[in-house]
Amino acid sequence: MARSRAVYEYTEAEDKSMRLGFLLIAAGLLSLLGLGCCWLRPALQERGGGGSANCTVLAVRQLGERFACTFSCGAACRGTARYPCLQVLVRTSRSSAPALLHEDERQLRTNPKCSYIPPCARDDQENSENVTYKQKFWKEKVGSQPFTCYFNQHLRPDDVMLKRTHDETVLLHCFLWPVVTFLVGVLIVVLTICAKSLAVRAEAIKKKKHL
Q1: CA distance readout (Å), 128 to 50, 125, 133, 158, 187
Q2: Is residue 5 one of the residues assigned to a domain?
Q3: Same domain for 155 and 56?
């Protein structure tokens, strides 16, 4: 009996392979759980009740108010500059009421009053020039041409986004890689068990032939 039990014991290499498989399975499950609670669920809620529409520019204007931004000029060098507030008002194909356009969800959360946040430079004048350039772009380049925008009636009914931060590709990768990790772990465990089972059977058949 002792000999029979010893035959089914895993070698050191097989034991490491099993541990790796179980580690990948656990990592895949924990990743799915963590991403689902911390990132995927809020992203889906953000997308819920939303959709796309055609937008047309109604007005482009700069407010007199200026907002602060933080610039970095090195590892231990940081400071605060200011930029003017640009507002792009649009009309969507879903509603006749004007809506405020934003670059994406991140920009909307950072500064919901403005349509554009320039890359923060140390010089306030440079920030103003970047905002003015963007203002000319919307006035002269886009003008009255319709373009695709995104909205969420439940979260921000008076705002629309030029692009989504959480698009289908990001959500796919968020779900895909933990599942792939889990499946690779399962595959390693199954192959190790099958290889061991085949080795034990081959050893048993070999012993029978010698009897």
Answers
A1: 33, 5, 9, 26, 57
A2: no
A3: yes
